[in-house]
Design brief:
This protein is 32% helix and 28% strand. The protein contains eight helices and nine strands. Helix 5 links the parallel strand 7 and strand 8. Helix 2 runs parallel beside helix 6 and helix 4 crosses helix 8. It is globular, with a radius of gyration of 16 Å. The two termini are 31 Å apart. The model has no long low-confidence stretch (mean pLDDT 96).
Length: 236
């Protein structure tokens, strides 16, 4: 039993969807999984395990930011031997190439965090997605008429209310599509443990245009992202 998840051995599936919002975790379990049972309520960070098309899958809230994400990913990989983790989160678009409710499938994650520089002794490690998951997610998204998906770089920022937003301009000029707060840590930890990881994010806010979704919409209406994630992780 781990410190922050607290599930018993065998209660968590080898494949885990990882939303930041624990209420989105509950919504995913109730909406998409069969026979879902709650395996964690520690600190209100809800986790569930059920089946999708007969295959076991778990969904676990992870909180906001790379430190919180790292706690849950470390425990999932080390204490529960999880093999595949797909982040299903929200992001803010940094370019007009991307619209509200589009999917951003993150091929790699830039960051302004010092976490990886500490880990790699000042070197700039490039955290990237598992290619098999990336390709499967893109194919699943392309097969749908209701999804516009973009594959590219995202920024995993350490600050939600950024006092220096102009500093992202060079990143956008070099192809960064959107900003969120977790994928860099997820990709780094998965690489360290030899596991598969992918971040799929729905654009909930637009930094350029000022458009935004509501908190309830972010919690309960990003179903296409979840279906693409399930197809990518379990559909093959």
């Amino acid at each position: 039993m781990s410190t922050h998840i607290g599930a018993e051995p065998g209660q968590i599936a080898p494949t885990v969807l990882l939303p930041g919002d624990p209420l989105r975790s509950r919504w995913i379990a109730r909406t998409f999984l069969d026979d879902a049972e709650c395996h964690s309520e520690v600190r209100g960070m809800l986790g569930y395990t059920g089946t999708w098309r007969g295959q076991p899958v778990s969904v676990q809230g992870s909180g906001m930011g790379q430190p919180s994400m790292s706690i849950y990913v470390n425990e999932l990989l080390d204490d529960y031997d999880v093999q595949t983790v797909v982040r299903v989160g929200s992001c803010g678009a940094l370019t007009e190439r991307v619209a509200i409710r589009d999917l951003v499938i993150a091929s790699g994650a830039c960051t302004d965090s010092s976490m990886n520089r500490l880990r790699f002794h000042g070197l700039d490690y490039a955290p990237v997605a598992d290619f098999g998951l990336l390709r499967a997610a893109y194919d699943a998204a392309q097969a749908r008429d209701d999804v516009t998906a973009h594959v590219g770089l995202i920024l995993s920022g350490d600050t939600f209310y950024n006092p220096r937003p102009e500093l992202t301009a060079p990143l956008v000029e070099h192809g960064v599509l959107a900003v969120e707060m977790e994928a860099s840590a997820l990709y780094t930890l998965a690489a360290a443990k030899g596991r598969r990881a992918l971040a799929i994010c729905t654009v909930s806010d637009h930094v350029v245009t000022g458009e935004a979704t509501t908190s309830q919409e972010r919690e309960e209406t990003f179903g296409a992202m979840v279906e693409v994630a399930l197809e990518a992780a379990l559909g093959g």
